[in-house]
Design a protein that fits this description.
It comes from Kosmotoga pacifica. The protein is an alpha/beta fold and 347 residues long. 39% of the residues lie in helices and 17% in strands. The chain has two domains: 134 residues, translation initiation factor eif-2b, domain 1 (Four Helix Bundle (Hemerythrin (Met), subunit A)), CATH 1.20.120; 197 residues, Rossmann fold. The structure holds the ligand CSC[C@H]1O[C@H](OP(=O)(O)O)[C@H](O)[C@@H]1O. The site of the ligand CSC[C@H]1O[C@H](OP(=O)(O)O)[C@H](O)[C@@H]1O has 16 residues, from helix 2 and strand 10.
Length: 347
């Protein structure tokens, strides 16, 4: 009996199993990780992706690392080994702060309780707590966000900030789910989100499975759709929110925010407090991951560009705080000045 099983991942006690999100929606293939190195690879290769999902996955990877150690974890060697496990998992992807938040939390628990005989059980419990908390947090985000949407609204979203980007339920899609659960008729326009196509492959798939009205568009259609008056609000996820409210999210989010402002459409970011990084002052300091050029030159393995063409593939961009109408968190919706209101969330 798995100790935790959701659409995104399953914790069995000695492995973490992911649905391979690279293969969705055409194939549901599962990948079992029994070591921290395999979990590192699953995050790096985007078998599992999405800021909160990455954080929870790394937490389970940390537990697997502790289980691998052949010796006494309560020793200098054991402490050095767990520091190496933390650093290895932290090196999988640089932008989503949830990864570092979860690993810091796991490592703090390890250092505080390493003399306990059942340290591995304690670490497993902490990873499960992180996972279960994520689901509850997403439902709270959904509740607050749903209050911003009216019956009959059409929402545009970018990338996938759904159940597959979290342990379950989703952040931006959690807002849409909660509004529908509250009885509101909500339609969604989903950007396909080149180059990795999280919108086409994951968001459209999730919403159709839930019976929520979704229209898939290519990224370059967002402006035209807005100019036709089809969109009432934009709701997206986040990978890291800086102390001043600048938001790093999937590449293309910034363009959507500019278009939303141009058309007088409210632009909301849905994210848990674990995505807010008060130690990063502004978006300028957020590390932006660059990924393989093959993600641009190939679509699902089919080459669509000339051999050796020069490419630039930033996986994220930064939306300045002054383009963001509100940030929907599990503690409510915060509005500018974010350098003040975000800090208050942690009082
Ligand atoms: C709920 S966070 C989802 C966030 O993560 C995605 O990035 P990636 O698919 O590269 O992990 C994207 O930025 C989403 O908004």
């Amino acid at each position: 009996m798995p100790k935790l099983k959701t659409m995104t991942l399953e914790w069995t006690g000695d492995s973490v199993v992911f649905v391979d999100q690279r293969k969705l929606p055409l194939e549901e293939v599962y990948v079992r990780c029994t070591t921290h190195e395999e979990t590192f690879a699953a995050i790096k290769d985007m078998i599992v992706r999405g800021a909160p999902a990455i954080g929870a996955s790394a937490a389970f990877g940390y537990v697997l690392g502790a289980k691998e150690f052949d010796g006494n974890l309560n020793s200098d060697e054991g402490i050095r080994y767990m520091e190496s496990v933390k650093e290895r998992l932290a090196s999988s992807r640089p932008t989503a702060v949830n990864l570092f938040w979860a690993l810091d939390r796991m490592h703090k628990k390890f250092l505080n309780r390493l003399s306990s005989e059942n340290i591995i059980d304690i670490l497993e419990e902490e990873a499960l707590t992180i996972a279960h908390e994520d689901i509850e947090v997403n439902k709270a985000i959904g509740k607050y966000g749903a209050e911003l949407l009216r019956d009959g609204d059409t929402v545009l979203t970018h990338c996938n900030a759904g159940a597959l980007a979290t342990v379950d339920y989703g952040t931006a899609l959690g807002v849409i789910r909660a509004a529908v659960e509250a009885g509101k008729k909500i339609s969604v326009y989903a950007d396909e989100t080149r180059p990795y196509l999280q919108g086409a492959r994951l968001t459209a798939w999730e919403l159709m499975k839930d019976g929520i009205d979704v229209t898939l568009i290519s990224d370059n259609m967002a402006g035209w759709v807005m100019s036709q008056g089809k969109i009432n609000a934009v709701v997206v996820g986040a990978d890291r929110i800086a102390a001043n409210g600048d938001v790093a999210n999937k590449i293309g989010t910034y363009s959507v925010a500019v278009l939303a402002q141009r058309h007088g459409i409210p632009f909301y970011v849905a994210a848990p407090l674990s995505t807010i990084d008060l130690l990063t002052p502004t978006g300028k300091e957020i590390p932006i991951e660059e990924r393989s050029h093959k993600e641009i030159t190939h679509v699902q393995g089919m080459q669509v560009a000339p051999n050796n063409v020069k490419c630039y593939n930033p996986a994220f961009d930064v939306t300045p705080w002054n383009l963001i109408t509100g940030i929907i968190t599990e503690k409510g919706v915060v509005r500018p000045p974010y350098d003040v209101t975000l800090k208050k969330l942690f009082d």
